[in-house]
Design a protein that fits this description.
CATH topology: Amino acid/polyamine transporter I
Structural class: mainly alpha
Helix content: 55-70%
Largest sheet: 2 strands, antiparallel
CATH class: Mainly Alpha
Distance between the termini: 28 Å
Number of helices: 18
Strand content: under 5%
Number of domains: 1
CATH architecture: Up-down Bundle
C-alpha cells in the first residue's frame, strides 16, 4: 500500500474497462431516484418526526425537516457532482482515492463496508420484528426464532436477505424494477395515511408553532446527562441544554438529518448508470426532493392531529400514536404494512451498495481481486452471494441492540471528505 498515492480520474475510469471487472450500465435517473427513496423512506418516516416534535421542536419540526433537507441536499449534490465526474463504483471511497490518497480511502472504504454491513443486518432483523407485529395485528402468531444448541437463530432475516441476494445476482435492472414497484406501493401507503390524517388535523395543535425554549431537564423523555446529550454549540458556549424554541429546531434538524441519508448508497451505482453525467445528478436530486416532501407531509399530519405536548407524554411517539390518540386505531394496520414494505426496499438497496463498495476496493487490489470479477450479466455475482451470506449470518445471530450501536460508523467522515473533495477536484481538474 502506497499510503499517499492518488489515482487520476483517467486511470480510475480506464480500470472499469477491464472485461472481467466491468459492470453493465442499465440504470437511468428514475431508477436512481427510486433507490434513493427506497433506502431513505423506511420505518423512520412513521416515527422520527413525532419524536423530534415531542422532545425537540414541537410543531416547528417542519422547519427542522426543511433545514435538514437543505443541508443534506448540499451534501447530496457533492456526491452527485463527484459521481458524474468519476462514474465509478465506490462512492466516497473512490472520490477520496482521487483527492486525498490511498490510506484515507482505505479507511473510508472499510468504514462504509462496516456501516452498510451492519445497517443491512439491522434492517433485515427489524424486518422480521415488524413482520411479526403485522401478523399479530391480523390475529396470526408467527414464530421465526429458534434455539439451536444454545444459540438463537432468527430465520426472518435469512429469508429476506436470501431473496434479494438471488434477485441481485440475476441482474441490477431486474432488482431495480422490483424495488421500484415496492417503493411506489410504499409511497402510496404514506400518502394514503397522510390524506386520512388531514381530516383529523386541528389548527390549534400548531399553536404555538415555535414553543418557547424550555430547560431540557423539565421535559419527560429527554436525557441531559453527558456531553453527547446536548448540541455541540451549547456544549461549547456552556449554555444549559434546552428544547423547543430555536435550540429545539436545530437539535430536531440534527435528529432528522439521518432520515435523509441514502444518496451515498445511490452513488455506489454510478458505474451501472447510463449517461451518468446527466442521470446521476437528476436521480439523486429527484430522490432527495421526494423524500423531503414525504417527511414534511408526515410531520404536518403527526403534529396537526394531536398536540406535541400529548406526544411528549408517550414513551415512543410515532404517527401511529397520533392516530391512536384521535381514536383511529385501525390505521395501525396500514402503518405496520407500510413499515414492512419500507424495510423490504431498504434491505435490497443496502445489499447492492455493500457489494459495490467491496467491488471497488477489491478492483484496486486493497482486497482480494477475485471479489471484483463479474458474471456474464455484468454483476459481481460471487461477491453478492458472499456478502448476502455474511449479512444473513450476522442478522440472524447477533442481538439487535449491538447491531444498532454500530450502524453510523464512518457516515459523517465520508460526508466531510466528499464535501471537501469537490473544491479540491475543481481546482485540480477544472476541465472535468
Amino acid at each position: 500500500m502506497q499510503i499517499w498515492r492518488k489515482k487520476s480520474v483517467e486511470q480510475t475510469i480506464a480500470e472499469t474497462m477491464d472485461g472481467e471487472r466491468h459492470l453493465k450500465r442499465t440504470l437511468n435517473a428514475w431508477d436512481l431516484a427510486v433507490m434513493g427513496v427506497a433506502v431513505a423512506v423506511g420505518a423512520g418516516i412513521f416515527s422520527v418526526g413525532a419524536q423530534a416534535a415531542a422532545f425537540h421542536a414541537g410543531p416547528a419540526v417542519i422547519i427542522s425537516f426543511i433545514i435538514a433537507g437543505i443541508v443534506c441536499g448540499s451534501a447530496a449534490m457533492c456526491y452527485a457532482e463527484f459521481a458524474s465526474m468519476i462514474p465509478v463504483a465506490g462512492s466516497a471511497y473512490t472520490f477520496t482515492y482521487t483527492t486525498v490518497g490511498e490510506l484515507i480511502a482505505w479507511i473510508i472504504g472499510w468504514d462504509m463496508i462496516l456501516e452498510m454491513l451492519m445497517a443491512g443486518s439491522v434492517i433485515s432483523k427489524y424486518w422480521g420484528v415488524y413482520l411479526n407485529d403485522l401478523m399479530k395485528l391480523f390475529g396470526l402468531n408467527m414464530t421465526t426464532s429458534f434455539n439451536l444448541g444454545g444459540f438463537t437463530i432468527d430465520v426472518a432475516p435469512i429469508i429476506i436477505v436470501a431473496f434479494f441476494t438471488t434477485m441481485l445476482v440475476l441482474g441490477t435492472k431486474l432488482s431495480a424494477r422490483f424495488d421500484g414497484a415496492l417503493t411506489i406501493l410504499k409511497i402510496g401507503i404514506v400518502l394514503f395515511v397522510v390524506v386520512v390524517g388531514f381530516f383529523y388535523i386541528k389548527a390549534s395543535n400548531f399553536t404555538p408553532f415555535v414553543p418557547p425554549a424550555t430547560d431540557a431537564a423539565s421535559v419527560k423523555g429527554i436525557e441531559v446527562s453527558g456531553v453527547m446529550a446536548q448540541p455541540l454549540w451549547q456544549w461549547v458556549t456552556g449554555m444549559q441544554p434546552a428544547v423547543y424554541g430555536v435550540p429545539g429546531i436545530l437539535s430536531g434538524a440534527a435528529l432528522v438529518f439521518f432520515a435523509f441519508i441514502g444518496f451515498d448508497v445511490v452513488a455506489t451505482t454510478a458505474e451501472e448508470t447510463k449517461d451518468p453525467h446527466k442521470n446521476i445528478p437528476r436521480g439523486i436530486g429527484l430522490g432527495l426532493f421526494i423524500v423531503t416532501v414525504l417527511y414534511i407531509l408526515v410531520a404536518v399530519v403527526t403534529t396537526g392531529m394531536v398536540s406535541y405536548k400529548d406526544l411528549a407524554k408517550q414513551a415512543a411517539p410515532s404517527l401511529s400514536t397520533s392516530f391512536e390518540l384521535v381514536g383511529a386505531t385501525w390505521a395501525a394496520k396500514i402503518i405496520s404494512l407500510g413499515i414492512v414494505i419500507g424495510l423490504t426496499t431498504v434491505v435490497m438497496v443496502l445489499l447492492l451498495g455493500l457489494t459495490r463498495i467491496i467491488f471497488a476496493v477489491s478492483r484496486d487490489g486493497l482486497l482480494p481481486r477475485s471479489f471484483s470479477k463479474v458474471s456474464k450479466r455484468g454483476i459481481p455475482a460471487r461477491l453478492q452471494i458472499v456478502a448476502g451470506i455474511v449479512v444473513a449470518v450476522v442478522a440472524s445471530t447477533l442481538d439487535i441492540g449491538i447491531l444498532s450501536d454500530m450502524v453510523n460508523i464512518g457516515t459523517l467522515s465520508a460526508f466531510l471528505l466528499v464535501s471537501a473533495g469537490v473544491p479540491i477536484m475543481r481546482m485540480r481538474r477544472p476541465d472535468l
